[in-house]
């Protein structure tokens, strides 16, 4: 069962034209549902992206048959040349990006050898998403939004890490380079079977999302310094309880009680926060509304819903 967490950044608002939203990994599941909702609610072009051209175009046909008008851009987040090509397209065509939803991600079945799970999962969920952020963050227009889809499995994984690792992931002074080193260390230790002895849990997907959540906060702190007139927010959301729910996808399974469209509610809500919004800001969101905001990032490992 995969729970979902969202990390969102807000930028100061300036009047602009030719608005555009980009959703990674959106040819199916929650990603497709996010594109569907944005097509209905966002006043601008909405791009469905996928690494496979055929699957992406087929997904566009599905939405077109529903009377929507999504656009398509091929994007394989594990291929840096694909990322740079897509970034160049949006820079040249739109002068940047207004909304970026990093939804692309993978999870393995338990039968897959652990070291293979670790290498491939972190390559996609952490390292590739980091590459997307590296190339797209400079393109985010004033008033833009960046939403990173993560997972509460990251909180669980971090709680099972050694005290040393927990301290570093929670630290306000952890750097991006240090974080990358920790993620690389986990992958290398799985190859020799020494990851548990080294202080890591048996949760590959969770570790990848621990990395993504920590990266989001590092970027939030950096943006506060580099773009002091912009607002930066970090908002995770839990699909169980008050959140939109455990969602039926290929990755999470077909026994989940919620549909992808229901799972898309919170990421779309965060992506479409109104102009001038100052919250969520450096905090977590488990459902729409102020009552669900957990303002301390240090609570990310024991997230609770506020009543």
Task: Write a structural description.
- This protein is an alpha/beta fold and 307 residues long.
- The protein has a single domain, classed as Rossmann fold.
- Helix content is 44%, strand content 13%.
- It has eleven helices and eight strands.
- The chain has helices spanning 29-41, 53-65, 80-94, 114-136, 153-159, 163-170, 176-192, 195-198, 204-226, 260-263, 265-271, and strands spanning 5-10, 20-23, 45-50, 71-74, 97-102, 140-150, 284-285, 293-294.
- A six-stranded mixed beta sheet has the order 1-6-5-2-3-4, with helices on both faces.
- Helix 4 (114-136) packs antiparallel against helix 7 (176-192).
- It is globular.
- The two termini are 25 Å apart.
- Mean pLDDT is 80; it is low at 231-246 and 289-307.
- This is carbonyl reductase (NADPH).
- GO terms for molecular function: carbonyl reductase (NADPH) activity.
- Keywords: NADP, Oxidoreductase.
- It holds the Pfam family adh_short.
Summarize this structure briefly.
Pfam families: adh_short. With 307 residues, the protein is an alpha/beta fold.
- Which CATH class is shown? Alpha Beta
CATH topology: Rossmann fold
What's the main sheet like? 6 strands, mixed
Our count of helices gives: 11
What does the overall shape look like? Answer: globular
Proportion of residues in extended strands: 5-15%
Would you report the number of β strands? 8
Oligomerization: single chain
Strand order of the largest sheet: 1-6-5-2-3-4
The CATH architecture would be 3-Layer(aba) Sandwich
Distance between the termini: 25 Å
The total number of structural domains is: 1
Helix content: 40-55%
Q: What are the secondary-structure elements, in order, as H or E?
A: EEHEHEHEHEHHHHHHHEE
């Amino acid at each position: 069962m995969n729970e979902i967490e969202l990390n969102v950044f807000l930028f100061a608002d300036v009047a602009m034209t030719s608005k555009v939203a980009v959703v990674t990994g959106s040819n199916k599941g929650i990603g497709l549902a996010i594109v569907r909702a944005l097509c209905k609610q966002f006043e601008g072009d909405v791009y469905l992206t996928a690494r496979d051209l055929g699957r992406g175009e087929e997904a566009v046909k599905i939405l077109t048959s529903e009377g929507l008008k999504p656009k398509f851009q091929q994007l394989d987040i594990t291929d840096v040349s694909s990322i740079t090509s897509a970034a160049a397209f949006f820079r040249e065509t739109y002068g940047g990006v207004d909304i970026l939803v990093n939804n692309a991600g993978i999870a393995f079945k338990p039968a897959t050898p652990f070291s293979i799970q670790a290498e491939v999962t972190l390559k996609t969920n952490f390292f590739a998403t980091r590459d997307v952020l590296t190339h797209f963050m400079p393109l985010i227009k004033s008033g833009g939004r960046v939403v990173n889809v993560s997972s509460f499995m990251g909180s669980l994984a971090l709680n099972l890490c050694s005290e040393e690792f927990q301290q570093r992931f929670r630290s306000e002074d952890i750097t991006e380079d240090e974080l990358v080193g920790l993620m690389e260390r986990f992958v290398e230790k799985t190859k020799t079977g020494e990851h548990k002895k080294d202080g890591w849990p048996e949760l590959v997907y969770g570790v990848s999302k621990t990395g993504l959540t920590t990266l989001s906060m590092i970027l939030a702190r950096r943006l506060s310094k580099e773009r002091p007139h912009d607002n930066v927010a970090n908002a995770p959301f839990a699909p169980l309880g008050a959140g939109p729910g455990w969602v039926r996808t290929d990755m999470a399974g077909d026994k989940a009680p919620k549909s992808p469209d229901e799972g898309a509610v919170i990421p779309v809500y965060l992506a479409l926060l109104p102009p001038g919004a100052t919250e969520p800001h450096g905090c977590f969101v488990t459902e729409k509304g102020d009552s669900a905001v957990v303002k301390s990032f240090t609570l990310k490992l024991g997230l609770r819903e506020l009543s």
